[in-house]
Amino acid sequence: MHKNLPFTSPPLIAAIGQYGILQEYKCGQTIIEPGQYIKMIPIILEGTVKVMRRGEDGDLFLYFIKRGDTCAVSLTCCSNARQSEVLAIAEEKATILGIPLEKHEAWTDEFAQWKEYVASTYQKRFQELLGVIDDIAFKKMDERLLKYLVVKSNQLNTLELQVTHQEIAKELGSSREVISRLLKQLEKRKLVELGRNIIYIRNGIEEFL
Fold first, then answer.
1. Architecture of the domain whose range is 2-136
2. For residue 18, how many other CB atoms are within 10 A of its CB?
3. Is 13:41 a contact under the CB 8 Å cutoff?
4. Is the pTM of this model over 0.70?
5. What pLDDT, on a 0 to 100 scale, did the predictor assign at position 77?
6. In the CATH hierarchy, which top-level class contains the domain 140-208?
């Protein structure tokens, strides 16, 4: 287990091994729901988790968390005893280590590396959220779609994305018709190949961002 943790401090690793709770999630299974009180800090050991913000028009994609990562929103909600404002879903089969709230608070004072981990998580997610805001405010939907495909492909380490046009539309705050039209345009540019509920990504597509 410790080989998948982003820590080198033996006392911290030992404490995590003693108090951490292993949890397994299937692909597509909900991990955190809006309105839920979060009592554990999730650290991803295996797999990828998708974090979204639920709104009236659908679930807006925010960011992915993968091996060694945790969710900044979970940290905030735990620390302030607030209900979750995000939806977290396993993008693939995932193994998560849950750190009890009381240990998170104690380790912030006890272990410098845990404190640094929490601080770096906040900084990383803040930058990602700024990127989401910039994308919505300044980028056209075709640019956002291309970036979405690149990020998803990189996070899952695959060039074959099993996702429907409707799912992409919901996560980008668009309509299925718009996404289907833009995907057809990407296919004409030979950046993707469209199948039934699957999108084949061209190797090196990042160059077109």
1. Sandwich (2.60)
2. 8
3. no
4. yes
5. 82
6. mainly alpha
